[in-house]
Design goal:
Layout lengths: L2 E15 L6 E3 L21 E2 L2 E2 H9 L4 E4 L21 E2 L3 H4 L2 E2 L5 H11 L2 E6 L6 H12 L6 H8 L10 E4 L12 H24 L6 E8 L3 H11 L8 E9 L9 H27 L7 E10 L19 H16 L4 E6 L10 E4 L2 E4 L1 H9 L6 E9 L7 E8 L2 E8 L6 E8 L6 E7 L19 E6 L4 E3 L3 E6 L1
Parallel strand pairs: 1-19, 2-5, 2-13, 5-8, 8-9, 9-10, 10-11, 11-12, 12-13
Antiparallel strand pairs: 1-16, 3-4, 6-7, 14-15, 16-17, 17-18, 18-23, 19-22, 20-21, 20-23
Helix pairs in contact: 4-5, 4-6, 6-7, 7-8, 8-9, 9-10
Alpha-L-arabinofuranose binds next to loops.
Length: 492
Amino acid sequence: MSELKKIYLMYPKKKGTVAPEIYGHFAEHIGGVIYDGIWVGKDSDIPNIKGFRKEIIDKLKNIKAPVIRWPGGCYAEIYDWRDGIGEERPTRINFWNFYDEKNEPNEVGTHEFMDFCEAVGAKPYFAANMSTTTPLHIRNWMDYCMSPKGSTTLAKEREKNGHPEPFDIPFWGIGNENWGCGGNMNPDYYANEYRKYATTMHYTFRNKHLAKENPMEFYACGEDAFDFNWTDGVMRNLKDSLKLVNGFCMHYYCNIFESPYDYTDKQWDEMMEKASKMEDIIKRNWNIICAYGMEEQAKLIVDEWGCWYPGGYGPSKGANLFEQQSTIRDAVVTALTLNIFNNNCDKVRMANVAQVANCIHSLFLASEDKCITTPIYHVFDMYKEHQGADAIETFVTDNTERASSVSVSASVKNGKTLVTVANLSCKEDFEISLEAIGTEKEQNAKATLLSSDNLLKCNTFEEPDAVVPRSFEVDISKHFTIPKASVLSVEF
Ligand code: AHR
C-alpha cells in the first residue's frame, strides 16, 4: 500500500500573484541556441516566420512564453549592438569561441530578435554589456530602439532599417555574471559601475517609461549560487540608490558532471537535493535584500536556472556547445523549481530557464528540418495557467508526519484552481488526497500526468514522443495515485 500524502490547499492564505515572467526563457548566442536552433534564416525551406523556426514559435505561443532574455549570458558582455543592425553585418569572435571555435555572423540582431518576440508574443529582456563598453554605448542602443519615429538620428537609422516605430524594451539587465565572465569584478567595483550605467540609462528613457502602466525595470547582476558575499556587497553599495535597481539577478544551475540519461537512484536523489536548494538560495538572497530595506523595489530575477551536465550529450553529439538531452529527472526538477518560484512569488519577479533550444535545460532540440520538444517543455505546458494567478499556501503531510517527498504549489485564477505536484522519489508511488481549506471541495477535475516507464528515456529525433504527458478525468473527492518520478497537474 502506497503512503498517503495529504495536500492541504489553504484558500484563505494568498501568497501573492505569480508574475507571468516567472515562466520566462533565455536565448543566448551560444552553441546551437540561435543558429540552427530558433533561427533557420528567411530563405530556408524549413517553415519559418521572418527567419525563425515556426514550430518553435507556435509551441512557445502555446505555453504563453511571457519574456525572452537576450543576447546572453556571457555573450552579452562582448556584444556590440551595432554589429547586429543594417545590411552589412560583421563576423566576430563569439565569446564561446574558446570552447567551440565558432564565430558570430550577427545574422540575428536587434530587429530580428524583436521579430521573434513579436511572433511569440513575449516581452524582450535585454542584457546590456557593461564590462567591455561604455554607458554612452548602451544609451545609444536605447536611443536606437526606443526613440519616437523621426526624432533622433538613431531613430531615423532604425526607420531606414525597416522599423519606423520604436521598440518597447521593458527589462534591462546591467551586466551578466560580472563576478566572472563579465569583467571578474568585486562587489563594490561592480556596484559603482552599475550606478554609472543605471544613472545614464535612467536619464535616457526611464523617466518617460515610469509614467506608463509597465515601467522599465533595471536589474543588477546577482550572485552565483551560494556566494552571498556578492549579494551583500552589491546591496550594501546600492541601498541608497533605490530608484536605480528593480531586480537582483541570481543564477543557479544544478551541475552534475555525469551523463544526463544514465544515472543511478542515488544520483537521482542527489539531483533532487541540489534542485531543492533553490528555495534556500531565494530566501537567503531575499533576507539580504530585506536587511538593506530594498524589498519594495528590488525583487529576485532568477535569470539562469536548470540542470547542467557539461559535455555535449544531445543529438548534435558535441557539435553544439552544452547541448544535452533530458529525461523525466529533468522534468521533475523543472516542476520542483517552478513550484518553488510559485511559492515564493512575493520575492521572485522573473525567471528565465537556460536555455530555449539546444543548450543546457532546453525545451527544444532542433537541427535542420527536425525539431522536438523535451520533457521540460511539457512541464511548462502543464504549469502555464499559474501565470498571473494568485498563489495560495499549501501544506503537505502524511500519516507519520515525516518530511514529504512531494513538491506542491497551487494557484487560483478566474475561479479555477491549478495544483501542480512533483513526486521527487524515483522509487515510491504515493497516494494523494486534496484537502480544501476555506472552500467547498470539488469532485471532478482534469488531471495531466507526465511520467516515464523507463527513467532513462529521452525524446529523440527518431522517437519524439517517448516522454509525453497524458490527460484524464479524476475524482478528487477520493485519494488517487501519483507514480514515482512524475509530474501531475490537477485543474478544477
Ligand atoms: O547559460 C550558459 C552560460 O552560463 C551563460 O552565458 C552564463 O551567464 C552562465 O555561466
